[in-house]
């Protein structure tokens, strides 16, 4: 059991298509410690995922609200879509489900939005003026849109089509693996996707995060998008850190995260 506890330490949870991760986050520095992970249950129903989250959270003695991400559009705690999780999430007050399972107040938000918040606060997008697009690439493709450091929630740019292909499946790390793409082939796909994102949003900076970042040296130098492209400073921990930041900013006494 992880026992570190300070007033500035909260638990962040990041739910992905393949894994559910949690860590302690110092919300004053962005440092995440004690990361633990379990496989995402299948089927990834609200009850199953909430149970996995509860199992992780109980390993930390830190009390207070928790922040939790999910690969879906989330509005006032209610899950509106379901990407790489069970469709039974749609219409569910996911924040309440997690809160009841963990016996703690919970703030629920989109996973890429959380990563974007973290990079804007502590990472490569810190103090970056203008439009920033955060793109998380792993089992699928998530995106966060920020303007002058302020989040525009639930920007689903992973669901645009590029050359007739849905980006979420076409440029994901899962697609690269499943199709046994060479890194040069994958980089060409990613470059075409980023070019379209640029054409839609005209960002000053694109930040790439998610599981793909551990392979950055194999594709980043092949990207030719017409703006700066950088790898997330917080790496694959950005979602966890951003989740904790969202919890910090919420009314701590709100049991359903709305």
Descriptive tags:
2 domains; alpha/beta; five-stranded mixed beta sheet; Nucleotidyltransferase, domain 5; 14 strands; disordered C terminus
Topology overview:
Layout: E1 9-15, E2 19-26, E3 31-39, H1 46-57, E4 66-70, E5 74-75, E6 78-79, H2 94-102, E7 106-110, H3 111-122, E8 131-137, E9 141-147, E10 150-152, E11 161-162, E12 165-166, H4 167-170, H5 173-178, H6 183-201, E13 205-209, E14 228-231, H7 238-249
Parallel strand pairs: 1-4, 4-7, 8-13, 13-14
Antiparallel strand pairs: 1-2, 2-3, 5-6, 8-9, 9-10, 11-12
Counting DSSP H or I runs of 4 or more residues, the number of helices is: 7
C-alpha-based Rg, rounded: 17 Å
User: Any idea of the CATH topology of the largest domain?
Assistant: Nucleotidyltransferase, domain 5
Q: Which of globular, elongated, flat, extended, rod-shaped describes the shape? A: globular
Strand content: 25-35%
The number of distinct β-strands equals: 14
What oligomeric state is this? Answer: single chain
Mean pLDDT, as a whole number? 93
What is the CATH class of the largest domain?
Answer: Alpha Beta
What count of structural domains? 2
């Amino acid at each position: 059991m992880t026992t570190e506890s300070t007033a500035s330490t909260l638990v962040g949870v990041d739910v992905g298509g393949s894994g559910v991760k949690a860590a302690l986050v110092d919300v004053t520095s962005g440092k995440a410690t004690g990361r633990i992970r379990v496989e995402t249950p299948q089927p990834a129903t609200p009850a199953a995922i909430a149970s996995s989250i509860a199992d992780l959270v109980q390993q930390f003695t830190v009390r207070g609200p928790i922040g939790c991400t999910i690969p879906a559009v989330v509005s006032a705690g209610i899950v509106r879509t379901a990407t790489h999780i069970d469709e039974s999430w749609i219409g569910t007050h996911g924040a309440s489900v997690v809160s009841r399972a963990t016996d703690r107040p919970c703030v629920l938000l989109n996973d890429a939005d959380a990563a974007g918040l973290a990079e804007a606060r502590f990472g490569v997008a810190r103090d970056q003026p203008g439009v920033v697009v955060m793109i998380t690439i792993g089992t699928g493709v998530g995106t966060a849109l920020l303007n002058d450091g302020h989040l525009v929630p639930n920007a689903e740019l992973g669901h645009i089509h590029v050359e007739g292909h849905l980006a979420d499946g076409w440029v994901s790390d899962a697609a690269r693996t499943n199709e046994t793409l060479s890194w040069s082939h994958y980089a060409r796909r990613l470059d075409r996707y980023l070019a379209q994102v640029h054409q839609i949003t005209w960002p000053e900076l694109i930040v790439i995060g998610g599981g793909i970042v551990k392979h950055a040296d194999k594709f980043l130098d092949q990207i030719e998008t017409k703006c700066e492209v950088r790898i997330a400073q917080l790496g694959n921990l950005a979602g966890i850190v951003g989740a904790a930041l969202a919890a910090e900013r919420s009314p701590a006494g709100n049991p359903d995260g709305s």
